[in-house]
Design brief:
The chain is of the alpha+beta class. The chain has seven helices and eight strands. It has one domain.
């Protein structure tokens, strides 16, 4: 049977286009990985005065798809598992950056189920205990930031800071202190801010798909590092 020319050529063109786009995407990923090489785990650790104590030194926090496991994705036989940890005391207080991303896939007869675990935070440990608090940006490009602690909102005494951030704590004096320190974090702008103080540590929380998104936040890694360390010092650390 004779088929029209387009019936034969169109599938070949479609396959060729798909291969071309896949190759182009891979080349762009390599280029971005090189362009933002200072955000690879080992290089970012050096910039922040930290040591890489766990994980792939070439993992790029801004270009995660440059990692072979992330680019491949989870399969039934092999999960995606990225576990990075940076630690040090660049400003006198213990500072860490942890990044955990694990995804598992289970393919059934009619459904495919994915399970995902994710945690990314930069944390500093204060030398003294302090009352719990939480700070979130009022305006976030991906919607309101979900708070982790049930605490009342408290004015800081700094109208500009109160307009920019929601500060929650049970201690008015701590809110006043935060009003003096939070200007350090205004530079993050639309990247967003989510600080959680649990009484011992202050953590800057980052997420995969909601504000603060990892890549947008860690673009300002030095700002976060300095801000957290200053906050720990003011809290008594």
């Amino acid at each position: 049977m004779d088929y029209p020319f387009y019936v034969l050529i169109f599938p070949a063109l479609a396959v060729g286009y798909m291969l071309f786009m896949r190759s182009r995407h891979k080349q762009q990923t390599v280029q971005f990985d090189q362009q933002y090489s200072s955000y690879r785990a080992a290089e970012l650790a050096t910039r922040l005065g930290l040591q890489l104590v766990k994980g792939d030194p070439t993992f790029n926090f801004l270009v995660t798809h440059a990692n072979a496991a992330v680019a491949r994705g989870a399969t039934d036989a092999q999960a995606v598992h990225i576990d990075i940890e940076l630690r040090g005391e660049p400003f006198g207080a213990p500072l860490s950056l942890v990044y955990l991303h694990r995804q598992e896939r289970d393919t059934g007869f009619t459904t495919t189920t994915y399970k995902t675990w994710f945690d990314c935070r930069m944390s500093v440990t204060a030398k003294q205990a302090f009352p719990p608090f939480e700070v979130t940006s009022r305006q976030a490009p991906t919607g309101a930031i979900v708070k982790q602690q049930a605490l009342p909102e408290m004015p800081t005494g700094n109208p500009a800071i109160d307009a920019e951030f929601s500060v929650t704590t049970q201690e008015p004096a701590l809110a006043q202190l935060l009003g003096q320190v939070l200007p350090d974090f205004v530079a993050l702008g639309s990247a967003g801010v989510h600080l959680v103080g649990d009484g011992k540590r202050v953590s800057f929380i980052m997420n995969q798909t909601t504000t603060p998104i990892v890549a947008s936040a860690l673009y300002h890694a030095e700002v976060i590092s300095h801000g957290l360390s200053n906050l720990a010092r003011r809290l008594g650390g």
